[in-house]
Amino acid sequence: xxxxxxxxxxxxxxxxLLRFTSVVIIVLLLVAGALTALLPNIKDDKMPNLRREPxxxxxxxxxxxxxxxxTYNRTDLLLKLLNHYxxxxxxHKVIVVWNxxxxxxxxxxxxxxxxxxxxVVFKVQTVNRMRNRLQNFPExxxxxxxxxxxxxxxxxxxxxxxxxxxxxxxxxxxGFVPRKHISTPSGVYSYGSFELQxxxxxxxxxxxxxxxxxxxxxxGYLEDFQRQPEAVYTLIDETQNCDDIAMNFLVAKHTGKPxxxxxxxxxIRNLEKDxxxxxxxxxxxxxxxxxxxxxxxxxxxxxDGMPLKYSNIMISQFGFPNYANHKNKx
Amino acid sequence: xxxxxxxxxxxxxxxxLLRFTSVVIIVLLLVAGALTALLPNIKDDKMPNLRREPxxxxxxxxxxxxxxxxTYNRTDLLLKLLNHYxxxxxxHKVIVVWNxxxxxxxxxxxxxxxxxxxxVVFKVQTVNRMRNRLQNFPExxxxxxxxxxxxxxxxxxxxxxxxxxxxxxxxxxxGFVPRKHISTPSGVYSYGSFELQxxxxxxxxxxxxxxxxxxxxxxGYLEDFQRQPEAVYTLIDETQNCDDIAMNFLVAKHTGKPxxxxxxxxxIRNLEKDxxxxxxxxxxxxxxxxxxxxxxxxxxxxxDGMPLKYSNIMISQFGFPNYANHKNKx
Lengths: 330, 330
Fold this sequence. Notes:
- The structure is a homodimer.
- Chain A is of the alpha/beta class.
- Chain A has a single domain, classed as Spore Coat Polysaccharide Biosynthesis Protein SpsA, Chain A (Alpha-Beta Complex), CATH 3.90.550.10.
- The first copy, chain A, contains eight helices and 13 strands.
- Chain A has helices at 10-38, 75-85, 107-112, 156-168, 220-225, 230-239, 243-255, 288-302, and strands spanning 65-71, 91-98, 120-124, 144-148, 152-154, 173-175, 178-183, 189-192, 209-210, 214-218, 260-263, 268-270, 313-317.
- In chain A, the strands form three sheets. In chain A, strands 3-2-1-4-10-6-11-13 form an eight-stranded mixed β-sheet. In chain A, strands 8-7-9 form a three-stranded antiparallel β-sheet. In chain A, strands 5-12 form a two-stranded antiparallel sheet.
- The longest helix of chain A is centred in the first third of the chain and has 29 residues, at 10-38.
- Chain A is elongated, with a radius of gyration of 28 Å.
- The N and C termini of chain A lie far apart (89 Å).
- The model of chain A is unreliable at 42-52 (pLDDT under 50).
- Strand 13 of chain A pairs antiparallel with strand 13 (313-317) of chain B, so a sheet runs across the interface.
- Chains A, B: Belongs to the glycosyltransferase 47 family.
- Chains A, B: This is Exostosin-like 2.
- Chains A, B: Keywords: Disulfide bond, Glycoprotein, Glycosyltransferase, Manganese, Membrane, Metal-binding, Signal-anchor, Transferase, Transmembrane, Transmembrane helix.
């Protein structure tokens, strides 16, 4: 039954109008209440909010990256580095891979020292394995991963630039530490850095790997890593080494191109000597480099061929830090 | 009718065999004669061939490039540069765009000083136009063009490396001279180099053009250039300038990406002051830079928008000239 305004007496009209108006008001109040309930809760901070910066716009999965940092026996370095890395632009989240088996994570202390710019997740491991950091973590939401060793500090400027480079080369490992393999007449490969002879393709040196301990790469490669031949895992577990060489093999095989793109760091520091733990890192073991040559040859067997390719592209940031860093004598 | 050896008497067999053998010998001689006729003629050199290097394998159109060098009033520099550039690795041919209207080319002298590593073609022009070098020359057989100003010397090392970089970025202008445009609050653009303010996208500077007077680019862009709005040609002809800015607009519009990739040169020299002609090049004109800002704004009108994009990628050669040029303090 519709209202036929014209046909009702004024008094009846008045009461119906009143009823209608009340209903509308009640509905509006309910809606407002619902909206209020849906609003996010404002956290109670211990300090007054007076000087607090406005929240940055939320980072989309395409424009931000996840830092994955594995740690063993260097919690003091870890915490120092977390203070630095938590504030890097475009960082989405930090995943700490906790290889200190049986030891409590510093999560409580971490929370007591909040708030923090981004969420930090401590992933407790059951066995101390080098390849723990190469799991396909469910907490990983971004396309990009930044993997850092727990003793390496790279400046925010370098990271921001390298991230922008990765966005232009998303299928490559974009990082700060280049290495190479060389062929020898016997067919046996050797692993090393620039102290090794150049591979001999024209002028200058070449690199065929970019180490993942200071690099950006696509999170899809963590997924791919779960599907490798069992022998790869055995090799990494045996040596507690070479997970990064294996990743370079994986990427090179996948792309058919050089696995890495080297970005020359302006400010990269190794903080090893700063630790109180006395623990100085795997690469100090006597057999470390020999193991890595061994790994290259084993991986060639496993993958039935040498997929690594050479590159001599070295990328730096135009006009930074020196605004005339590209100037020439012309 | 086949030979049925078994069935013929010995004497008949003898004559037939003799006839058959003679035919075979004559055929072989004819074939040998034909092959000899098809062999390339060995040129008669004035000097004995004793110390002559074997001919290099012919360069395929994909693995070599064509040098296009336009010249006006600096034939002494041209000839000096040709002696250098004719020997660059992977060079297929040189096309000299002869803007000295009415003047004989040095072709006779060039030939008398042969042999030369590659063919050099002198393209006589009828009008002295800046954009003469942007014709789609029929002599052009390679995918890659190296365009050089007639007063610019770039080392063979730099060129070999930049060519390899172009092969990895074939849709870009890969070269040694970066420039940029900047936006101003009025909406009017300005053209310049690093002395201009940074465009303000994060740290450091950016470039949005790579000048074609010392760069590699795809020969397809010369074809594209023939199909531009008439107003572009008018602009270049009016100013006798800006052909390179127009090419950057063309490439940026085509790719939707930054038009150029900057390769930092190790050894690039301007030989202007070395010329006997007294002619010192267009860029010394008082209005040169103002014209280029003018061109940027005109081209934005013509193309109905600003297609140029910024980049801060600076590429250098890993381990060359210094084999440890990427070393860091780690």
